Amino acid sequence: MFCPYCRYPDSRVVDSRTTDDGLAIRRRRQCPECGRRFSTTETASLNVIKRSGVVVPFSRDKIVSGVRKACQGRPVTDSDLAILAQRVEETVRLSGAAQIEANDIGLAILQPLRELDEVAYLRFASVYQGFDSLDDFEAAITLLRVEHEAARSSNDSEATVE
């Protein structure tokens, strides 16, 4: 690491701390030549391969803006969207890959969005799962209903056990 003051080609790490929910490391460094201190932030790079083949850096902001369109008119706050984007990033980073396809990110958005708002989920899923007809929407809605019934009966059986 070059010193930003004197350009000496080495530095000593004085302190290291995790930041940004553990996704980055902030290092406090000192130059052995001039003695000045400076900070660096290190993150594991994550790139997205778009459908066109172009590779761009991963961005939570792009997730938020894409999901915001699906949430238009729904009771979803900016804070909710920020948490969703964080969850998606954590999921994608757990794959361990340095590059991920844009479509895979879209698919990683589906479950957290489903938990956040089912209508927004259906809107978003219609794009990423390629709904071609009303039958696709009906199948997705039927699946949501079945899961609601299963959750409701599970909660009812837990209530009777207590």
Automatic annotation (TrEMBL):
<dbReference type="InterPro" id="IPR005144">
    <property type="entry name" value="ATP-cone_dom"/>
</dbReference>
<feature type="domain" description="ATP-cone">
    <location>
        <begin position="46"/>
        <end position="136"/>
    </location>
</feature>
<keyword id="KW-0804">Transcription</keyword>
<dbReference type="Pfam" id="PF22811">
    <property type="entry name" value="Zn_ribbon_NrdR"/>
</dbReference>
<keyword id="KW-0805">Transcription regulation</keyword>
<dbReference type="InterPro" id="IPR003796">
    <property type="entry name" value="RNR_NrdR-like"/>
</dbReference>
<dbReference type="InterPro" id="IPR055173">
    <property type="entry name" value="NrdR-like_N"/>
</dbReference>
<keyword id="KW-0067">ATP-binding</keyword>
<dbReference type="GO" id="GO:0008270">
    <property type="term" value="F:zinc ion binding"/>
</dbReference>
<keyword id="KW-0862">Zinc</keyword>
<comment type="function">
    <text>Negatively regulates transcription of bacterial ribonucleotide reductase nrd genes and operons by binding to NrdR-boxes.</text>
</comment>
<comment type="similarity">
    <text>Belongs to the NrdR family.</text>
</comment>
<dbReference type="GO" id="GO:0005524">
    <property type="term" value="F:ATP binding"/>
</dbReference>
<protein>
    <recommendedName>
        <fullName>Transcriptional repressor NrdR</fullName>
    </recommendedName>
</protein>
<keyword id="KW-0678">Repressor</keyword>
<dbReference type="Pfam" id="PF03477">
    <property type="entry name" value="ATP-cone"/>
</dbReference>
<keyword id="KW-0547">Nucleotide-binding</keyword>
<feature type="zinc finger region">
    <location>
        <begin position="3"/>
        <end position="34"/>
    </location>
</feature>
<dbReference type="GO" id="GO:0045892">
    <property type="term" value="P:negative regulation of DNA-templated transcription"/>
</dbReference>
<dbReference type="GO" id="GO:0003677">
    <property type="term" value="F:DNA binding"/>
</dbReference>
<keyword id="KW-0863">Zinc-finger</keyword>
<keyword id="KW-0238">DNA-binding</keyword>
<keyword id="KW-0479">Metal-binding</keyword>
